[in-house]
Amino acid sequence: MHTVFVVGAGPAGLFAAQKIALAGNNVVVFNRDIKPGGLAEYGIYPTKDKMKFGLRKQFAKVLSLPNVHYFGHLPVAHGGALAIDELRGLNPSATVFTVGAQGTKKLGLPGEEALGVYSAKDFVYHYNLLPPFASQDFSTGKRIAVVGMGNVMVDIARWLLKDDPGHRTEEVIVVARRGPFEAKFDDKEFVDVQMHVDRADFEAELRRVKDPLAAVGQDIGKVMDGPFKVLRKFEGEPTMTPKLSFRFLCSPKEIHSGPDGRIDRLTVTENVMVERNGGVAAKATERTEELDVDTMIFAIGDVQDPRVGLPYGPEGYVTNSNSHDSELASYEVFDPQQGRMLSGTFVAGWARRASDGLVGIARHDGEIGAERVLQYLEAQPRNRHATVHDVWMYLDRKGLDLVSKDDLEFLSMAESREAQARGLNSFKFADDREMLRVIEDEKAKELREVA
Ligand SMILES: Cc1cc2nc3c(=O)[nH]c(=O)nc-3n(C[C@H](O)[C@H](O)[C@H](O)COP(=O)(O)OP(=O)(O)OC[C@H]3O[C@@H](n4cnc5c(N)ncnc54)[C@H](O)[C@@H]3O)c2cc1C
Predict the structure, then answer these.
(1) In angstroms, what is the span from residue 409 Cα to ligand 1's centroid?
(2) Residues within a 6 A CB radius of ligand 1
(3) N or C: which end of the chain has fewer CB atoms below 10 A?
(4) pLDDT tens digit string along 64-91?
(5) CA–CA distance from 183 to each of 80, 168, 349, 417 (Å)?
């Protein structure tokens, strides 16, 4: 029997684990967070309960397979609880890294380190209660610039405009380097915030960018037929405060901070549009503008985290993408220094293509990655590799606070009880130590009941 390691228990990792396990192999899942689910648990908007419950149920089904083993609260990284070399030393039949895209894209702007400047992922982790982000300072002010124009921007705007318990927001300003036709959000997401867009302001902004858009053949008269058609659909309905506004054709240039070290102004460069490689691109002009903001959130996608220890290049983890073998080869990790594949090492999901699509796409990618692993295993000798027992023994010797499948059930029971007591649909503990304590308390309670 083969033993395959899956590092990362988001949708890509869990659906990969399912496929590999159902083919008759042991799977050992290592996960940084105590709970499984990745961004499906800690990224998807907090009030999308139905979707989250559905996904949790599917993940629980994967973990209920007897040949899937789970070690939560175990980051695999240089300087993490388990280094990648230790993982290799355990001699798995194959390893799939499905760790998502945990790195932060830095633009290298002057002032980027100011207080009140956040990456969208970290901010989303904070309001979705992922430790340690849940207890870190992600305070927002009254005027918040959100850079980027995709679904993540819409989620963040929704939180700031509607659900943030602090209720401090007066205006969310979307800063987009290109024009309204390049908006990437889905209508069904934008519906939730459209009532905060002041139509007169929006049209004034369209008039401001009319000429640069016309230069690439874009007609502002058609914006309401394209990505912003939701605004036309709800035209005439009252605009709500706080306000959601757009600054098109603007790129952040410099972040200024006040004496308290917190951002108090943003300089943006005004762009024009040019045709490039069959599409349109933004080109900076000499003109700049000052935006009066006290918080800034970058929602421009993420990158993979180099600290995991896989070969890393400008496109993230290096894969065998040059292989003419097949599309499946792009799931194999390639070591450019040695000029060869890292035998038995694969990536899938957002670890393969950062910030690429919804849960369904990550699931599909995990399953394709699993197919590649199964092909690889066919040529590998059986029973020459690590056993699950070896892994248990090794981790036990390290004395780490690990979380097993049984522990997850104890945690889930405690959270359901807490939700019931508070009259909520669901409840999450937001601190690792508290979760570990609750698990121990539940175990002790069960032992007492048995005795
Ligand atoms: C703000 C936001 C909102 C979204 N909303 C939706 C939505 O409404 N609907 C939808 O379908 N999709 C949504 N998505 C997309 C969806 O969440 C992703 O497609 C999907 O979660 C990606 O799956 P993944 O498994 O590749 O990575 P992730 O979900 O990021 O999972 C990665 C896993 O790896 C673990 N990990 C990370 N580093 C390590 C390490 N070093 N060692 C061990 N484990 C590690 C993490 O703990 C995590 O469990 C949203 C994404 C974001 C960012």
Answers:
(1) 21
(2) 7-13, 30-33, 38-40, 43-45, 48, 75-77, 80, 98-100, 102, 124, 152, 155, 308, 349-350, 357-359, 362
(3) C
(4) 999 999 999 999 998 889 999 999 999 9
(5) 38, 26, 24, 42
